[in-house]
Amino acid sequence: MFSQIKHQFLLHFIILLWGLTGILGKLIELDAVFIVWYRVLFSFIALGVGMFFFRASFFVKSKKELSKIFLVGSFVALHWVFFYKSIQLSTASFGILCLSTTTLHVSWLEPLVIGKKLSLTEVLIGLVVVFGVFFVSGELDNQNLSALFYGLSSALFAAFFAVFNLKLTEKNTPAQISFYEMGAATLFITIILIFQGRFSFSALSLSVNDFFWLLFLSIICTSFAFLAMIFVMKKLGAFTVSLSINLEPVYTILLAIFILKENTVLGSRFYFGAVFIVAVVV
């Protein structure tokens, strides 16, 4: 019983840190893809230093396992790029609320990937959450429609890496998974930027404020949180974790009210829908 409470407490602390990532997406003055590039690069370095310091093994059992980790790393990159794109096109509150639909995708992915029996209750909960997201969306102009697309796509990739990470923990340590996924995400985004002709010193330039925000985002909200979340997921299960992550909008919305003053741009319909989604989770 105490062990469950301990893991739940750690889970919600991680969710609070992730709630901050949406706020940082507004505070950092970079395009979404560059925010993610720095995030995964700094996280990759921090994890490597940490593993070396604590003498953790870098060795992965097979090339097949390593290729799987690299694939999931690309899912991580796409999830974060779409997430920050959604936030920058709309608000931190709206972008994070779209992530609530991750539950729906996890409910059908888990049976396919890890052989868990399909739960109609989980599917129903996921569908109700999707309805809540569309309700808060209201009437969409082109920009908000794009924000919705990026937000929902982000949720899909979040489900991919949540479920596949659970599968990867059967043969690899959380540190190994996190380290190589961050490295894969860095490589994946670098290749995209090179093909787009956007990889240059001028495009990668940083202000002092952005540099320190990115360090906090990378080391605390990513490296630590990523390792801890894989550990917690192994103890509590992917669906329990993804369902609890639906409470992330609560933390983000409250932080957005106090830090970004988003209550001045979001109407009562949004907050009613947000309460509805949280009530479904509870």
Task: Explain how this protein is built.
By secondary structure, the chain is mainly alpha-helical. The protein has twelve helices and no strands. The longest helix has 29 residues. The radius of gyration is 18 Å and the shape is globular. The two termini are 20 Å apart.
Task: Please specify the SSE layout and strand pairing.
Layout (H helix, E strand, L loop, with lengths): L1 H26 L4 H22 L9 H27 L2 H7 L3 H13 L5 H18 L4 H27 L5 H23 L11 H29 L1 H8 L2 H13 L7 H14 L1
Helix pairs in contact: 1-4, 1-9, 1-11, 2-3, 2-8, 2-9, 3-4, 3-7, 3-8, 4-7, 4-11, 5-6, 5-7, 5-10, 6-12, 9-10
Biggest beta sheet summary: none
| Total strands | 0
The helix content, as a percent range, equals: over 70%
Nearest-integer average pLDDT? 85
Strand-residue proportion: under 5%
What does the radius of gyration come to? 18 Å
Distance between the ends: 20 Å
Structural class assignment: mainly alpha
What is the global morphology? globular
Low-confidence spans: pLDDT under 50, at least 5 residues? none
Q: Would you list the SSEs in sequence order as H and E?
A: HHHHHHHHHHHH
Oligomeric assembly: single chain
- Count helical runs: 12
